[in-house]
Structures are given as C-alpha cells and as structure tokens.
Amino acid sequence: MTESEFMQKLDAGLQALTFRKREEILDEMRQHYAEGRAIGRDEHELSDMLGNPGELARDYLQQSGIDPSYHPAERSAAGKFFVALALCFFNMVFILGPLMGIWGAWFGLAASGISMTIGGALGFLFVVLSPIIPFVASPGSYFFLYISTTILCASLGILLSYGSWALMRKMGKVTAKYIRWNQHVISGRRARR
Question: What is the pLDDT of residues 75-133, one digit of tens each?
C-alpha cells in the first residue's frame, strides 16, 4: 500500500475526530514515513510496519473515548432541502455579488492584457513598415521612441495576460473548493481540506 492510500484510509477512519486531532495524527504518520524513507525503506514496507489503517483508526478513536462503530449520519432529504435553501439564500445575498465583481475585474484585466499585446504588436509592425509602405504615417524623427513604446506596450500586455491567467487558475480553484464545501454542508458530511 502506498503512503497516500494509507493516509486516505486512515483519514476516512478518523472522521469522528475533530479536524485538528485528525491532522495531528496524520502529521505523526507523515513523520513516520519521512523517517523511514530517510533510512532507506520504501513506502510499501513502511505501510506494512504501521499496520492496517482501519485498525489504527479504531485504536485512535478508542484512545479519544469515541465508539469506533460511530459513523456520522447523513442528512435526511428534507434536511438537505432546507440546508440547500438556506445556502442558496446566503450565496445569493452575500457571495454572488462580490464573486461576480471579482470575476468581472479578472475579465477586465485579461481583456486589457490581450488588447495591449495586440495593440503593441500592431503598432510595432506599422512603425517598422512605415518606410516601406507609403500609406502608413511616418514616425519621422521619433522612430526609436515609437519602437520603444510599442515594445513596452506589448511587453506589459504579455505580463498582464500571464498574470490574469495565473489569477484565473487560483480563482477557479477557490470557486471550485467553495462549491464542494457547499455540497458537503448540504449532504451533512464533513468537508475535507
């Protein structure tokens, strides 16, 4: 059994404990794996040495004074409906407005970055082609100033586009995590970090 499989099974068996207590136990197990790897043992061997994660979880539950046969019950259909209704109201009043504002600001940054990149590239192209093509306005003595400005504009646009892409990925993860949290609250299960 790999370390991640062992940790998932142990975490599933410890759901009756508080989050903090579960994390202490899981950190202790991670430390055992780290020490074992430091002396040259592989994760399968370490998992065998630590034992069955289900039995280990039952032992920890008994030490904490919790009946190992305890499993948190899921909400009834009516309970899920009323929790979903309350969350819907909460999300519409307190979350939806700021979330739309944040995503709108992101869209504005992304559009600005793309338009600055395209505008800088086209400006550079027109400045470079101005001596060749007669209908393009000639920059005259400010040629190097125009070249520098268009390169700066395109560079800032690329940076802004990349930054908005990275921000979108982070915001997407946070939004997905919030949606999963809502699902956990409705079902009555504890949310995992």
Answer: 677 888 888 899 899 998 899 899 999 999 999 999 999 999 999 999 888 888 877 77
3-class DSSP state of 116 = helix
- Compute the distance between CA of residue 113 and CA of residue 115 in angstroms, rounded to an integer: 6
Domain boundaries, given as residue ranges, for the chain: 3-63, 77-187
Helix (H), strand (E), coil (C) string for 129-158: HCCCCCCCCCCHHHHHHHHHHHHHHHHHHH
- 20: part of which helix (H) or strand (E)? helix 19-38
And the tokens for 184?
């956990």
Burial tier of 102 (Cβ tally within 10 Å: 0-12, 13-18, 19+): middle
Distance CA 39, CA 21 (A): 28
What is each CA distance from 20 to 53, 65, 114, 171, 183, in whole angstroms? 19, 16, 45, 26, 22
DSSP class of 72? P
How many C-beta neighbours within 10 Å does residue 59 have?
13
* CA distances in angstroms from 41 to 2, 19, 44, listed in the order given: 12, 30, 8
